[in-house]
Amino acid sequence: MADFKDKVVYQIYPKSFQDSNGDGVGDLQGILERLDYLKELGVSYLWLTPVFPSPQKDNGYDVTDYCAIDPRFGIMEDMEKLIQESGKRGMGLMLDMVFNHTSTTHTWFQKALAGEKEYQDYYIFQEGSPQKAPTNWQSKFGGPSWEYVPSLGKWYLHLFDVTQADLNWDNPKVREELKKVVLFWKKKGIRGFRFDVVNLISKPKKFEDDQEGDGRRFYSDGPHVHEYLRELVRDTGIEDMVTVGEMSSTHLEDCIQYSTSNPEEKELSMCFNFHHLKVDYKGGDKWALMEPDRMALKRLFEDWQLGMQRGNGWNALFWCNHDQPRIVSRLGDEGRYWRESAKMLAAAIHLMRGTPYIYQGEEIGMTNPHFRQISQYRDVESLNYYRILLDRGKTKEEALSVLAARSRDNGRTPMQWSPEERGGFTKGTPWIEMADNCRAIHVKGQREDKDSIYSFYKELIRLRKEKPVISEGSIAFLEKENPDVLAYKRQLGEEELVVVNNLTGREVVMSVPVLKAGTGARYEKLLGNYEGCKADEGRMELRPYETVVLEKRGIRADAILPV
Ligand code: TEU
Question: What is the pTM of this model?
């Protein structure tokens, strides 16, 4: 069994982490320079988003060659050194395997285009008239998900950009090719993998129009997905490595199956799902703004935490990644309670049942960059949707305000290392602008400060390693009907933690029955983001965005309440 329950994974978006050669693009040498910082933070695994050769239409998620390094990030020797140097510091590298699709510049696709039947079978080509796509499915980035190739008289499927052609996993040759890729990196000393949208790999036998939606119900957690994953894991012998699947529009029962600990049915160590990050999508539409629905957020956490516990599955816990706006801008407060809210959000996630992921910059409370012009955006999805929003009748200002809240570029601005110009990220011109607050929010200012967001994350990571109740304990939810508070109890034998989070910027009073005198238990504050803790007989007063973690210190006849 891979050990991942008491560990924390740190996600690096290499393009925006650290530039070493002044070209404005982060690189592998840059990551090497920052390994000591990551060691000090205490994380155990580093997940690198794709650094393989790519035309970068989708920032590396459009891969041309899975077994090489894109020159903009460095050379293979840099990767080998990174594996070695991370290992010396007790950290393992995880690579991002984009196996649902390749770039259309991949030789396989090029050969398919040149008419080689063998390679056409690597992808999902369908005969058809140029006037009518095989189905009405929509691409995740906007527009149709089929592209017509006149020279072949066929359409190919692309669930993402038109330059990202979906692979045909029903073809055993494709599965063999991808196993070779995993083995190549395993041999190099990679310690784990993140599999991109891996629950989309199995498409239905028959392609039909979706009368209700964009087609996703036909291919999300598709017909052979579990079988194909089991085969990949078995044939590459990665059962004992840390593996995480990114699951798009997934289902609980499937995630239980993906992450089951049963060795006979081994698929992955854990799953990302995104349901909790859609609670501010109006009518489920990412591009329609709405205040976050906190009750929905709580219910989703409850369903997934309790469901995965029941089924013995394992969650990847996260708020942020390179596709998401910054969480402090989204569910916290960028102003007065910036520090408090960033810490509360961290505690809320890190102390649940699962393995936490930290996305670069989250540990210092990085915010959205507040871009004001379309020229500041780089992401293909944002650029497409800007046009779509205008076509739908939005004004430029309206469309820009939607992007400022929802664009994936919100999470992609360069890491803020120091108050110098360009945040210590590069000596050149960054490929995407820095956030406007980069002189105020940076690693340098927080590293030595015991009260900083950074120090709080460090403490959460340390506690997880130290306390089995966090890594192994069971979870139960408290205060279920209160939309303002996310509260839960963790338990392992005699060990017990009560975690209480005020999700609002207001003072909130809540009842905590476990704290009632007469229950015989005694609790002490283990962690929080304010001085002390306002608790009284079975009742707590929470300050704006307050988080309090109480630890049971044993049973006493003269039970006293927390300090
Ligand atoms: O993302 C999958 C995915 O579906 C989303 O998170 C996507 O960004 C969202 O639907 C857009 O609204 C993964 C990668 O994380 C992402 O960066 C890639 O663009 C995508 O797959 C395609 O490889």
Answer: 0.97
